[in-house]
């Protein structure tokens, strides 16, 4: 059984949003077509409380994209984004939601970031996504969404770590940094993950 994971397709990650990924909105028509190929579609939603410690605004004297250490973990500081209950945190209105069976929220703990849909960045707490997928008989996970080099990549790595056959659908993602995504693809290959194009699923 294969599942499509739609990672953080939220208003704040598309142009005009607080943490816009260039071309982030361009993936949505493709993602909607891809959903038809899957018996199970699941989404994740970045869902931070106001004042989350991944926000540069929570660190006086620091700028957006600075690197700091947070309780022993390297942390990039982001603009305030995906604040619980705001429009920026909503799934994008063009995303077809009628086949999304579950939405896993992440990033609620104020002191730790959570790029992956499976675990926080310290692997301290699981979201329940892996157990949910196993409970549904899923063995193969396909990933699309935003951003390719952060939440999609970290979700793909954890999917591998949880023993799922893992496919990152490259043209159904957009990256914050092309260089960062290049490194991410190498690492994913080393972990036994696959990077594919949507055409391999749509023919
Ligand atoms: C993301 C940075 C911070 C993402 C979320 O969805 O890729 N990136 N929070
Ligand atoms: Zn975030």
TrEMBL record:
It is an enzyme of class 3 (hydrolase). InterPro entries: Isochorismatase-like_dom (IPR000868), Isochorismatase-like_sf (IPR036380), Isochorismatase_Nicotinamidase (IPR052347). The lineage of its organism: Bacteria, Pseudomonadati, Bacteroidota, Cytophagia, Cytophagales. The keyword Isomerase does not apply. GO terms for biological process: pyridine nucleotide biosynthetic process. It comes from the Bacteria. Belongs to the isochorismatase family. Residues 3-200 form the Isochorismatase-like domain. PANTHER family: LD05707P, PYRAZINAMIDASE/NICOTINAMIDASE. GO terms for molecular function: metal ion binding; nicotinamidase activity. Gene3D superfamilies: Isochorismatase-like. Keywords: Hydrolase, Metal-binding, Pyridine nucleotide biosynthesis. Signal peptide: none annotated. Pathway: Cofactor biosynthesis; nicotinate biosynthesis; nicotinate from nicotinamide: step 1/1. This is Nicotinamidase. Its EC number is 3.5.1.19.
């Amino acid at each position: 059984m294969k599942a499509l994971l739609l990672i953080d397709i939220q208003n704040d990650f598309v142009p005009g949003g607080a943490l816009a990924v260039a071309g982030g909105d361009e993936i949505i028509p493709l993602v909607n077509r891809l959903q038809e190929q899957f018996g199970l579609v699941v989404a994740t939603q970045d869902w931070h409380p106001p004042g989350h410690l991944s926000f540069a605004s929570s660190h006086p004297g620091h700028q957006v994209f600075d690197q700091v250490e947070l309780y022993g973990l390297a942390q990039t500081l982001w603009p305030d984004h995906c604040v619980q209950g705001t429009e920026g945190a909503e799934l994008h209105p063009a995303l077809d939601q009628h086949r999304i069976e579950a939405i896993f929220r992440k990033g609620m703990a104020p002191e730790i970031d959570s790029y992956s849909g499976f675990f926080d960045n310290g692997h301290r707490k699981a979201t329940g996504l892996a157990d949910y997928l196993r409970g549904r008989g899923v063995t193969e996970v396909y990933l699309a969404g935003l951003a390719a080099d952060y939440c999609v990549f970290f979700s793909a790595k954890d999917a591998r770590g949880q023993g799922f056959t893992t496919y990152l659908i490259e043209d159904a993602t957009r990256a914050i940094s092309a260089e960062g995504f290049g490194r991410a693809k190498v690492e994913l290959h080393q972990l036994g993950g696959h990077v594919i194009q949507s055409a391999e699923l749509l023919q």
